[in-house]
Design a protein that fits this description.
Rossmann fold
Amino acid sequence: MLSRRLLFFGGKGGVGKTTLASATALTLADQRLRTLLVSTDPAHSTSDILRADLGPEPRPVVADCWAMELDPEREADRYIADVKGRIAESVAPRLVAEVERQIDIARASPGATEAALFERFTRILEEEGREFDRVVFDTAPTGQTLQLLSLPEQMSAWITGLIGRRRKMTAAGRMWRNVAGAAAENAASDDDPVLQALEERRARFLRARGVLVDAEQTAFVFVVLPERLPIWETGRAVEALGKHGIPVAGILVNQVLPDDLSGDFVDRRKAREAKYLAKIQEDLGNWPLWRVPMQEEDPVGTDSLRELGNAVWGSYGMIPKAPYEMNTGGTESPA
């Protein structure tokens, strides 16, 4: 699983996604794999857990590890500003104010923030992400993540409809100009900036869709606690991702009580936990299950997170070697 270029960590809020995503990113960086950790969770807890000042662009955390936090509202504002700029270039000046008013109304509509966030996500895949060996996504709670990952299909269909209507408008305009005696070259749809922008976005969304469903480079990992609600929600989420063709690589069962603890209270907790662990095996056992023992203290800071990541993935023999080590069998640095 850790050999795939794109790793998504998801699950119900409060199950430890940020902790395990950060720990995994640092473990990969320890193998001299250039790793980018991206948080799409509006809670912005990645900065807190890493004890780092993060923003919307990649910033170095430790050697070979960079991190960034995406603010959905900020991305929506930037997305709307970009749309306004494109529209201003393609409509009559007298219509600009009214068009911008309509765009501002759309900004407040359901799904606008998710669309903007996915726009930024696609750019990470095609721009910043290409500079790294691994990109680890710490996602928002399950419902928001599923909505985000389902957008490629929804947006592609919607944009295809817009392209069709725009082409009809262009053809009608060309006919009118021909009747009026306007030069044919002024009606060329190839120079339509709106049509070009729509086709560019559709192509980018389709490429993103292709990446998300490619099991050779993408893996989605769910984090779950041995409790009723996280198990139930994860089961539904796994099923939903399957419908969209997004590959699930496995389930991290977090905060499992260590075997060496004992006492009346602990024994009762272990008995209850055993029932939930059996439920996880029953409902989610078709995927690899990796257990993460409960820690004495919350892992905060790069040292604690690195220790956790190396302990978890090392115990399962899953820590990958850097590409140049695998290719050459040596330890020379890549050119």
